[in-house]
Amino acid sequence: MIFPNELNLADLVVIGLLSAGLLLSLLRFWLGPSTPDRIIAVDTLSVLITASMVAMSLWFDNQIYLDVALVYVVLAFIGVIALARLIERGNQ
Amino acid sequence: MSYLGHAFMIIGALFCFLGGLGILRMPDVYNRIQAGTKAVTLGSLSIFLGVGILQPEWWPKLVTITGFLLVTTPVGSSAIARAFLKSGIKPWQKPGTPIQEIEQGLGQGLGQGQEPEK
Amino acid sequence: MDKGPSQFITIFLSSLLLWLLLAGSVQSEEIIAGIVISLIATFLTISRTSLFDAIHFSPLFPFYIFLFLASFFKALFIANLDMARRVISPSLPIEPGLVRVKTGLQSELGKLLLANSITLTPGTLSVDVDGDEILVHWISCPADMNTAIATEKIAEAFEKHIRRFLK
Predict the structure, then answer these.
(1) DSSP state, B36?
(2) Interface touch B10/A91, C-beta < 8 Å
(3) Domain locations in chain C?
(4) What pLDDT was estimated at residue C131?
(5) Is B117 contained in some domain?
(6) Which terminus of chain A is more solvent-facing, meaning fewer CB atoms within 10 Å of its CB: N or C?
């Protein structure tokens, strides 16, 4: 058994919807005609991954995922700001 | 109480899914930021609320993550939208509507290039 | 620069709050360590922090913040439902356009809060802040939109609340 807690129907629905959201964003990253589209897809993916980590900390009953999610939010923000700076400067 | 927590989590996951759908369907970068990042942020908040109801002793961490997310996500979106606009990516407009004057829309602030550093 | 005691207390309390939230426990050792570290951080940063200059201190300050957050989350939820309707409907009913919004807020913190609120509400995305104007990408922007109407529709509701506790 991978999950220590019994998953009920609600958890399965949440897993399904979150995975669908992740897959759709990933599809945009795959298709994305230009670099900005891919950057936006990564930005959305990072927020989705944070939400998934928090939900996983509930399912695995392990608080460590919350700390990981906290650090992940800040790192994703720094990454997006760095990319924005790069685009803004690179054009001049 | 546990039903309430699960309900919030399902609503949140639904908004996350809609955000993914939005980012796939919208026609240009700015509208994708609108539909994607924002809906996903609300979805995450709702999931955090659901987890907080199901595990009440975790709320300090969840409040911290929520605070960071609420401050960082809009700043990131704005910064990246501004960078796209300055690098010359024009917003998509509905076919048939009069083309918006970029000079009028952007004003002087953008034409002058760099803003003074803080 | 001369900073009043309210500045000191604001910085100290926000550092301590962040410490306690990150520690996630209220044992006495944590609180003592938090107080010591927050005091050091406050003394080191108070001469260079201008962020909190903009706050109107009043006894009702927490209440005003609560009012702002309540109206903000209400607007967030309504706008998200509206965005969900647009995304689901097959014809994709959007009319995006750029519009300028005027704000009466003077301080950096106030403009930051207003621009962030506008950005977090789906349908409006603040792209640039320039003096007293915010450039907003709006998803339902008719061709004859002008600054006055846009200001009334996008910014008024948030600004009314922010103005009570920020300059």
Answers:
(1) I
(2) no
(3) 5-49, 65-163
(4) 78
(5) no
(6) N
The total number of structural domains that make up chain B: 1
Q: Which residues span the domain enclosing B40?
A: 2-107
**What is the rounded average pLDDT for all residues in chain A?**
86
Residue B26 lies in a domain: yes
Per-residue DSSP letters for chain C?
Answer: ----HHHHHHHHHHHHHHHHHHH----HHHHHHHHHHHHHHHHHHTTT--GGGGB---TTHHHHHHHHHHHHHHHHHHHHHHHHHHHHSTT---B-EEEEEE----SHHHHHHHHHHHHHSTTEEEEEEETTEEEEEETB--TT--HHHHIIIIIHHHHHHHHHHB-
Q: Which amino acid is at A82?
A: A
Place of tokens 């009069």: B98
Structure ipTM: 0.85
In a domain, B118, yes or no: no
Cβ atoms of residues A24 and B15 within 8 Å:
no
Determine whether the interchain pair B110/C128 forms a contact, defined as Cβ–Cβ distance below 8 Å. yes
Contacts of B69 in chain A (CB under 8 A): 47, 50, 73
Nearest to C97 among B22, B81, B100 (CB): B100
DSSP state string for A17-44 = HHHHHHHHHHHHHHH-SSHHHHHHHHHH
Question: Looking up tokens 């083309």, which residue turns up?
Answer: B99
- Please, are residues C126 and C119 in contact by the beta-carbon 8 Å criterion? yes
Q: Which chains touch C (3 or more CB pairs under 8 A)?
A: B
Distance separating alpha carbons of residues A70 and B62, to the nearest angstrom: 9
pLDDT tens readout for residues A62-78: 888 888 999 999 999 99
Condensed to tens digits (0 to 9), the pLDDT of residues C9-32 reads 888 888 888 888 888 777 888 888
Strands C133-138 and C124-130: antiparallel
